Amino acid sequence: MRFVGKRLMLFVAALIGLSVLVFVMLRVLPGDVAAVIAGTNATPERIASLRAELGLDKPLVAQYGDWILGLVHGDLGVSAIGGKSVAQQVAARAGVTFPLIVLSLLIALAIGLPLGCAAVLTRNPHLRGLFHGIAIVAGAVPALWGGLLLILLFSRGSGLLGLLPAQGFPDDGWSAPMRALASLILPALTTGITAGASIMRYTRAAVGDMASSQAMDMAMACGMTRRQAVLRVALRLATPQLVSVAGLTFAQMVTGVMVVENLFALPGLGAMLVTDVGNRDLVAVQSELFLLAAFFLLLGLVVDMTHRALDPRLKASGVVSGKVNA
């Protein structure tokens, strides 16, 4: 309970500091949303009137207080450009972005875990070199270039095979699940292959370390083959590390898929954020950035808790240090 309490307190403190940082940094950027709304030929009086309507003439402390109060009550504000609720827009866009991230992570795990274990199990130096080369090449391919290659190979209309759509998302969303899923496969492959290469390297390193430990020797002394010992013992012992890697990979994909969304013309959070930044829509941008950063922090908290739950050594070290401190 002490560990959980400390982590929650740090999480809340980080959220407060994050909100201040996001608010201040956006106010430093040049541009004025009132001038954007009013147009290029607007008079100074018209711009001042719009600033008053949007609350931009208030002191910064008052603007920050109003924003935080709205966040506490679940109100992310209203877009200054479109006049729509930011919460509704984020919810609609998240229905594209987060399924894309989950699908990308599943592809990355399906690639990285088996290939990482295979690299540990093989005794053939040529195969080991091949696995090493695959990990380096796949991890070094830029997402935009990899996405273009997948479009040229598999997209309908311009691709060689013409299997999958390469642009857009169904207007009726997930009410047509198969069409929606098909539109996310190529973007998910673009992100998942690169992330899978990273997971493959981490898996090979973590399982390889465990494969040379005494636990492996004991497992093989009990009658297991080397393959059984690696898959049943070494992989299980490396699970806490791999959970941390998967959590960090998931967090990195939040920013990675934003680039991919623009390439495949998906109406996700990335396209929304880029548009709002270009329009200097401070109310929308500050809420979107805060939610994304808060998601990073929450994911880190969940990974930290999960890692501690899976690794009894962390609990034991906490008990020992608590007794020493007492």
Automatic annotation (TrEMBL):
Keyword flag Transport: yes
Transmembrane segments: 100-121, 133-154, 180-200, 242-264, 284-303
Protein name: ABC transporter permease
Compartment(s): Cell membrane
Keyword presence, Metal-binding: no
GO biological process, one term: transmembrane transport
One Gene Ontology cellular component annotation held by this UniProt entry: plasma membrane
Secretion signal, residue range per the UniProt entry: none
Membrane topology listed for this record: Multi-pass membrane protein
A Pfam family it matches: BPD_transp_1_N
Broad class of the protein's primary localization: membrane
SUPFAM superfamilies per UniProt: MetI-like
Keywords: Cell membrane, Membrane, Transmembrane, Transmembrane helix, Transport
All residue ranges annotated as the ABC transmembrane type-1 domain in the record: 94-307
